[in-house]
Amino acid sequence: MQFREMLSSEYKEKRILRFIIIENLEPLYSIDDLGNFKSAVIDIVLGIHHLAISKEGIKHCNITINTLMFRRTPSGVIQGVLGGWDSTRSNKTSTKYENDGIWTGTRPFISKDLHVGRPASHYERFDYESIFYSLYWISLFYVEGKFRPTTEIPETVERWKSWNSYEDRKIFDAKTTLIHTRWNENYFSTFFLPLVWCWLGPLRTIFKRGYSVRDDFNDMRDMRRRLNSAPHGTNVDTASPSLPEFDDETLGGNVTFERIYDILRGELI
């Protein structure tokens, strides 16, 4: 029986009352124990990889500090959960979304590649890069599950404003600087400093290596193209052989699930 039939005839409009029952999840940044926080992050990363390699090839595509969640089981165990699946792509929908010329994501957290181009596919590494940026900002803004007073971190607040804008080139440059230069650890909350040392630093290193290797590859490819197009009579004796295709999906094998997981488990990179 529809709910409106329980009411008098004056309420019998052509409407249907529906209830949506969802699980009660809490934001990851509200966890006040670093061990539980790290355990929840590992749960989420394992979930990302499991879905990415599944038959459907599911990619989240919009990981932010607000989609990193956790649940607390009846026994008190904290489990990491990834929410906000409205931007998800799969093998079936990938081509459809790519042809519309629109790329989804929240600017402060998307891969820096997405600010300056539209890759043919949404790589798994894009979601890992979003995890990296999310953990970075959580480590700056939160301490023991609480937001730090903005009066304590005025410079961080100003930097966040430039990231949280519509200026893609500006955000791209900021992310490039973050990845390729040393950061000042004094900006991080003391609560998250161990995470900065054992996770964020190594994660930054593999992204730095990957992007640097790709830049070197592109430089070499451009040089060979110029040599091959040189006019006859120059000092170029023979045409330079073409380079193999670069593995952009993993940035030359530098950013893979295996490397990410080794870092999360405390293995050397």
Keywords:
269 residues, Transferase(Phosphotransferase), domain 1, three-stranded antiparallel β-sheet, two-stranded antiparallel sheet, 5 strands
Characterize the structure shown.
The strands form two sheets. The chain has a three-stranded antiparallel β-sheet. It has a two-stranded antiparallel sheet with strand order 4-5. The protein has seven helices and five strands; from the N terminus they run E-H-E-E-H-H-E-E-H-H-H-H. It has 269 residues and is mainly alpha-helical. The protein has a single domain, classed as Transferase(Phosphotransferase), domain 1, CATH 1.10.510. The longest helix is centred in the last third of the chain and has 36 residues, at 193-228. It has helices spanning 34-52, 94-99, 124-141, 154-163, 168-180, 193-228, 257-264, and strands spanning 26-27, 68-72, 78-82, 142-143, 146-147. Helix 1 packs antiparallel against helix 3 (124-141), helix 3 (124-141) crosses helix 6 and helix 6 runs antiparallel to helix 7. Helix content is 41%, strand content 6%. It is globular. Strand 2 and strand 3 (78-82) form a beta hairpin. One of its GO terms (molecular function) is kinase activity. InterPro entries: Kinase-like_dom_sf (IPR011009), Pkinase_fungal (IPR040976). It holds the Pfam family Pkinase_fungal. Residues 13-138 form the Fungal-type protein kinase domain.
Radius of gyration, in Å, reads: 23 Å
Proper CATH architecture: Orthogonal Bundle
Most strands sheet: 3 strands, antiparallel
N-to-C terminal Cα separation, in Å? 61 Å
Structural domain tally: 1
- Percent of residues in beta strands? 5-15%
Shape: globular
Low-confidence stretches: none
Helical element count? 7
CATH hierarchy class name = Mainly Alpha
GO molecular function: kinase activity
InterPro entries: Kinase-like_dom_sf, Pkinase_fungal
Keywords: Kinase, Transferase
Domain Fungal-type protein kinase: 13-138
